[in-house]
Amino acid sequence: MKPCALALLMFVGLAQADEPQLRVQARLVPGDAVVVGEAVQLQVDVLTDSWFTRGASLPELSLAGTDVMPPNGEAEHLSQTIQGQTFSGLRYTYRITPTQAQAFSIAPLTVRATPAQASHELSGQTPALTFRASLPEGFSPGEPVLAASALRLSQSLTPSGGPFKVGDSLTRSVTLQADGTPGLALPAPPLASVAGLGAYPQTPQVSNLDDGRGGFNGGQRIDRVRYRIEREGDFELPAIRVKWWDSVNRKTRFSELPAVTFKATASSSYTPVFSIVDDLKQMGQPTRLRLPAFWLVGAAALLLAVALYVNRGRLLHVLNAVRYWLRNRPPRQDYGLRPLNPRHEKDFQK
Question: What is the pLDDT of residues 134-147, one digit of tens each?
Answer without folding.
Answer: 999 999 988 889 99
